Structures are given as C-alpha cells and as structure tokens.
Amino acid sequence: MSGGAFLRIGVVAVLLTACAAGVVAQSSGPFVVICPLDWMVDDAMTVVVERAVRTAKGAEALIFVVDTPGGRVDSAIDISNAILGATCPTIAYIEGMGAISAGALISYSCKQIYMAPGTNIGASAPIIVGLDGGAGEIDEKTKSFLRSRYRALGQENGHDPLLGEAMVDQRVELRGYRGPDGKYVFKRSIREDVPTTPPAPRSPTAPGVPPPTIEDLGRELAERAQQAVREMVRGQTPDVTDSDEPAPESPPTPDILPEEMELVSPAGELLTLTTDEALRYGLIEAKVESLEELIALKGLENVRQEWITPNWSERLFSWLTSPLISGLLLMIGLAALYLEIRTPGFGAAGIVGIICLAIFLGSYLIIGIANWADVLLVLVGIALLMIEVFLLPGFGFVGVIGGVCIILGLYLSLTRVPIPQYSWDFDRLGDAAQTIATASGLFLVFCVATWKIFPRTPVYRQLVLLHAQQPQAGYVVQTEDDARRAVGLRGVSETMLRPAGRARIEGKLYDVVTRGEFIEAGRPVQIIEVLGNRYVVTELKESRA
C-alpha cells in the first residue's frame, strides 16, 4: 500500500474521530428536561415523572408543564416524593385548565411555580364519591395528613403553607395583609360550623359558572367583615378555633384590625387562585405567556431540550391496569388454568393461563402498585394447588393454603396498602373490588357455559367422543362363568400371533394373545386364561404315536 493511501486513511480516521467527539460533546452539553403532565393524575404519570427525574440528573432544570384537573391523591404523593428527590432545580409551569386538586400538590413540590394567564391553582381536597354520584364527607385524618403535607412542601420549597392548607380544608378561613417588605402575611383560623362535604371550587374563570356581580361580592365581604369585628370586639369566638397543628409563625400584627385584613379564602370554600391572585399573594414567581417565554426567562433558550412524554409501554400498562381490563385478564388466566387442571397433560390452556396471569401481575408490578412479594405469593399458591391436584389425593390442607396464598397475593397486588387508612386507599380498594367482581362474574358465566351450553354445540361433538358402549347394546365384559367355560377350548390360529392376532375357536373368531411366543397361522391353539375380554392362548403340541 502506497504512502498516499495511508495518508488518506489517516485523514478519514481523524475526521471520524472529530465527528464522534462532536457528537459526544453535544450529548454531554447543558440540557433542560421538560415533562408535560396534561392528563389525569394516575400511576402512569408516576412512572413518567420518575423517569423524568432520572433523566434530569445533571440538567440545568426540570420543568413540569402542569395542565391537569387532578386524579389519584396517592399517585400525586408518589410524584411529589419523586420530585423532591430531583438533583436539579424543579419548576412547575401551570397552563391550560390549571393545577387543580392533585395537580396543586404536584406544583407545590417544585422549587418554583410559574403560571400562564387565565389559569388556576387550588381546590386540593380529595373527594369521596358515593354510590349516588354525590361527594361524601372527608375524614379529619385525611385532611390533617394533607395539611401537614402542604406545610412540609411549603417549608421545603419556600411556598406559603397556609395557602396550601386553605386549598385542602374548607374549614380554613384565611385572611392576609401586605407587610412592610411588600410580601403578604396570612392569618388563618379553622371554623367548625361549616359543612364538611367539599363544595365546588370557587373559580372566576371556570367554564359554565357565571361570575359573581360586584354587589354580591361587596355584600359577602361586608357581612363577613362585620361578623369578624363583632367577634373580635366581644372576645367571643364560639365557632372559630385555632388548629391544634403547629402553624408557621407570622410577624405580630398589633396595628392591623381584622376588618383591614383581606379575606383571602372564606370558610366553607376551598381556595382556588387565579394567576393574578397567585402572583399577588407571592405563590408564583411570575406570570409568563408561554413555555418558550419561561425558558427564555430562565436563560435556557440555547441549551438542549429533553422532552419526557409517556411511551407506548407506559400507556399500555396503564390501560392493562384499568379495572375492566385487569378483570378480564384475571378471568381468562383462571379459566384457562381451570381447564388445564380438568384435562390430562399440559397443553394450550395452561400456556394461555400462565401468559394472562403474567401480564396481569406484570402490569401491576411495572406500574408500581404490586411488588415481588405479591407476585411470589400468587406463584406459591399456584404451586401448592398443583401439588394438591397432581400429587396428593383429595383436596385438603395444602390446597386450602394454596387458595389463601392466591387470594392474598391478588389482593395485595391490586391495593397499595394491606389495610386502608385514607380516602385514596379506599378508592384503591374500590377498584380492586371492581376487578375481582368482573373476574368472578365472567368466570361464573364461563363455568355455566362450559357445563351446560358448550356440550350441546357441534364443536363439542367434534372434539369429544360421544359414542358409549352400553351394556344394553351388547357391549359386555366376560362374566366369571363365561371365563371359566372358555378356558380349555381349542381352535386354530387364523393369523400369525406375534403375540396378538386372531383365532377361530368352535367356529367363532376371537382376538387372542399369547404369553410372548410367536405362533404361525394354521397352528392348533388352546385358551388357557381369560382376563375380561382378553383371551390368552398357547400352541398345542402334536401328539406322536
């Protein structure tokens, strides 16, 4: 090879190395992670946020674009924990319908909050929906937990925790005034005379709700101010009590009278703030028109953007864990295993059952509801049932233990906690009951169809031999007397017996068998034993004179 060829190869190698170095430099440069949260808060959102937090290691910022009406509170708590574990600055940008209910908790978990014009944040109390479709009462344990959660998030990220408490508990009456430093100072009280059923959130921009008139607002503020003045003057507060929970300390307000404080959130209503209100009360950093404006405001317009959106597997597993689909998977898996146990050998039914149960348990495992201990319980239960059916006679203690393990494993895989404590735990329990009811009802229909309907179909007649050799039709086994009389009868082998074949004995053809020896056709034979319909013969030796 000539020197010019070596030179050309060296130049190409240098160029390739430079290109590779450029790609590596580009991929390792500064970047920002953007994660839209624009659907109902659920377990799939938890998986997406956890993936975004992992991707954001070493990022300049992690921006969550929040546009959700709420959803599962326990999923929001998991998302909050994941966001708190981020190693880079976290930003919530609220747009669209806003950050309502669980979305407000997610926004509070970020270090900074920005809002687009015309959106809302708040109304974060969980709602228990009854059988009649109405909102049920929220227990004090749930409200206390969420109030403390907002206090912890507020103290961690610098947001005022009292605003979060007013979003959770409709008994909180929140007043405030602008302090000497320009920041709002809030004072809260908890009224025990308000209804505990959460009302609809107060939002001036909610669609379909007519905005209150100036006269209505003035009348409401005047009545509440007069009531507060009377109570403060008389020193009587029969229906207003301070919370037994520690509240953030506020500077003393000796010169501020109650009537001079702004009524931020009246008792009996959950706090929902517009963009301008959130900016005035210091909850958000600024009002920005778009995500691009926010990125420019943070000086990140020239860095690489990594968008984290739900991939196909996360969407698929979210669909598979819905109560109806998971109930169908559970029913098909159990029905297929039932057929496999009822039929000899191992075939297609067993394979289908194992696949369906693997998809059922795997989807809950990947989405984060179940864990490996739940899966192990189900596998141990199935193994014990197999031992009971195939190795042990009857159905006893081992089978009972196996059934208990399966039921317990399925229950734990459908719920996040063994014993429900909060309202969202009971929501999980309701979904689990719907899944079990779907699977049980369909399995019952399957059993009825298998026993009563399927045997009457043409497909069944093609799969199963229906012809039976009944004694009334002449299909009988030799009786003991017939067997005794047949022993000693003689005849001639019609075919070669090796060792089975046919012999003609007293004018009748018999299917016969020897004890192992071969006998040529046309040789004299004699019946020496009868076992049911089985005639055992031996060859007669010719006598010599």
Polypeptide structure, described:
The protein has 545 residues and is an alpha/beta fold. The protein folds into three domains: 31-307, 2-enoyl-CoA Hydratase, Chain A, domain 1 (Alpha-Beta Complex), CATH 3.90.226; 312-369 and 415-462; 471-539, OB fold (Dihydrolipoamide Acetyltransferase, E2P). It contains 17 helices and 19 strands. Strands 1, 2, 3, 4, 5, 12, 13 and 14 form an eight-stranded mixed beta sheet that branches. Mean pLDDT is 75; it is low at 1-26, 130-135, 198-210 and 228-254.
Any idea of the CATH class of the largest domain?
Answer: Alpha Beta
Q: Per the principal axes of the C-alpha atoms, what is the gross shape? A: elongated
Give the averaged pLDDT, no decimals. Answer: 75
CATH homolog superfamily of the largest domain: 2-enoyl-CoA Hydratase, Chain A, domain 1
For the secondary structure, the number of strands is 19
- For the terminal residues, how far apart are their CA atoms? 106 Å
CATH architecture of the largest domain: Alpha-Beta Complex
Low-confidence stretches: 1-26, 130-135, 198-210, 228-254
Strand content: 15-25%
Quick recap:
This protein is α/β, with parallel strands linked by helices and 545 residues long. The chain has helices at 3-27, 43-55, 73-84, 102-108, 140-157, 161-168, 214-234, 275-280, 291-297, 312-320, 323-342, 348-367, 372-390, 397-414, 423-453, 458-463, 480-486, and strands spanning 31-37, 62-68, 90-100, 112-115, 120-122, 128-129, 135-136, 172-178, 184-191, 240-241, 262-265, 272-274, 286-287, 304-307, 490-493, 500-505, 508-513, 524-531, 534-539.
